[in-house]
Specification:
It holds the Pfam family Chorismate_synt. Catalyzes the last common step of the biosynthesis of aromatic amino acids, produced via the shikimic acid pathway. The protein is of the alpha+beta class. Helix content is 23%, strand content 18%. The strands form 6 sheets. A 5-stranded antiparallel β-sheet has the order 1-2-3-5-4, with helices on one face. The chain has a 5-stranded antiparallel β-sheet with strand order 9-8-10-16-11. It is globular and about 70 Å long.
């Protein structure tokens, strides 16, 4: 690479002007920076080089997940976690239990405890850096996407479940695209494409939810609002009073008992046929601090969309009025402002979904994520083999007939991670100096004495 220097006669921090008249061509030649050549020789053949990316999320509150299905374990590393946060493994285990398989007849029957262990970063119950979950099913571990090694037999299933999948691609799964990208793939469980990877997200999300609750009283709650053709009507759930107990009152995680039974019946109907259905998860955020998000590329809804759509099986994202808002006129859609009895600016309606101009306005943030039917089903399908021969495939194993009940804590986690990252960005940018008290609200003072605050 080559560099050049430029001299300026402008003063710097009040210094006198620089007299450049004495600088002859010889002087300039001595001052200029010589061309520098730097070369790096790789120790590996080019065909073995891999540029791994995509396993880290966030800028200030950074989460990196690791591990894969049927590997030695899965987990995450959190970088940038505020210190002195009271934390224990039970804070994460609650949400991990909501995510794990084998919860009911409408989820996969695999039995995996998903017991977490904090490996470092906590001293006397405070702070967090790293956590790890040992896989209950240790079938294969991938090394540099090159080969697999059998570690031991699978507790929960037989390795023969994957024999056919090793040569034939499962329709609508990541099998074919992993081969197209890497030229090799993990057959057992799909490797990093498996939903096992979301364990690290859910654990980190539990930490983020705890900090948000301690800091600003922010609550992140998600629930199932649709399974196949059973759609929970808008307005049935009161977002102002919705509680975690209501969501967890049934196995499908729909807060309305009547529609919950209909959803469970819809899943049962396809489960016995070896088929699957999709659905929608609705997520709300109460008491979100105002001012989160940035204009242009880093709008809050854009960050939430990326986070939600990075989850396995997602196919759609809406916030606020969503696509239904296109049927309204501006006079119908606009959220009019008013000042409440406490002197705070509020909106009479919330079609904006708590976000305007890419920035949170303090109203309830609401969004909806669509999940496709589970790709791996127990019915015969047409496909091709890795050597491009057409064939038929019946996928074996135990898979969710509908992913949305277990996706609820995953959605909560990703939303919480975005809010935590944006909260730290807002604090560092807009609250570094005294705020404009006429227009801005002070961020809440953390209530660290609430060591046993509920996640």
């Amino acid at each position: 690479m080559a560099s050049s220097s430029t001299l300026t006669s402008k003063s710097f921090l009040g210094s006198s002007r620089v007299d450049t008249a004495f600088l002859s061509s010889d002087h300039l030649r001595k001052l200029s920076i010589s061309t520098v050549h730097i070369s790096f020789r790789s120790r590996l053949p080019k065909k073995l080089q891999i540029n791994a990316a995509g396993s880290t999320f966030g800028n200030n509150f950074r989460v990196t997940t690791f591990g894969e299905s049927h590997g030695g374990g899965v987990g995450c590393i959190i970088d940038g976690c505020p210190p002195r946060i009271p934390l224990s493994e039970s804070d994460m285990q609650f949400d991990l239990d909501r995510r794990r398989p084998g919860q009911s007849r409408i989820t996969t029957p695999r039995k995996e405890t998903d017991t977490c262990k904090i490996s470092s970063g906590v001293s006397e119950g405070f702070f967090f850096v790293f956590f790890f979950v040992k896989n209950d099913r240790l079938l294969g571990r991938r090394f540099m996407y090159l080969y697999q090694i059998l570690i031991r037999e699978d507790f929960c299933g037989m390795k023969w479940d994957y024999n056919e999948m090793s040569v034939a691609y499962r329709p609508s799964h990541a099998d074919a695209t992993y081969d197209m990208k890497y030229g090799v793939r993990s057959v057992q469980g799909g490797g990093r494409s498996s939903a096992r990877e979301t364990i690290g997200r859910v654990a980190a999300g539990a930490v983020a939810k705890k900090i948000l609750k301690l800091y600003a009283g922010t609550e992140v709650l998600a629930y199932v609002s649709q399974v196949h053709k059973v759609v929970l009507p808008e307005g049935v759930v009161d977002h102002d009073s919705l509680s975690l107990d209501q969501i967890e009152s049934n196995i499908v995680r729909c807060p309305d008992p009547e529609y919950a039974e209909k959803m469970i019946a819809a899943i049962d109907a396809v489960r016995v046929k070896g088929d699957s259905v999709g659905g929608v998860v609705t997520c709300i955020v109460r008491n979100a601090p105002r001012g989160l998000g940035s204009p242009v590329f880093d709008k809050l809804e854009a960050e939430l969309a990326k986070a939600a759509m990075s989850l396995p099986a997602t196919k759609g994202f809406e916030f606020g009025s969503g696509f239904a808002g296109t049927f309204l006129c501006g006079s119908e859609h606009n959220d009019e402002f008013y000042t409440n009895e406490h002197g705070r600016i509020r909106t009479r309606t919330n079609r904006s979904g708590g976000i305007q101009g890419g920035i949170s306005n303090g109203e309830i943030i609401n969004l909806r994520i669509a999940f496709k039917p589970t790709s791996t089903i127990g019915r015969k399908q047409h496909t091709v083999t890795r050597d491009k021969k057409e064939t038929e495939l019946i996928a074996r194993g135990r898979h969710d007939p509908c992913v949305v009940p277990r996706a609820v804590p995953m959605v909560e986690a990703m939303v919480a991670l975005v809010l935590m990252d944006q909260l730290m960005a807002q604090y560092s940018q807009s609250y570094l100096f005294p705020i404009n008290s006429d227009l801005q609200e002070p961020l809440a003072i953390p209530r660290l004495e609430a060591a046993n605050a509920s996640v």
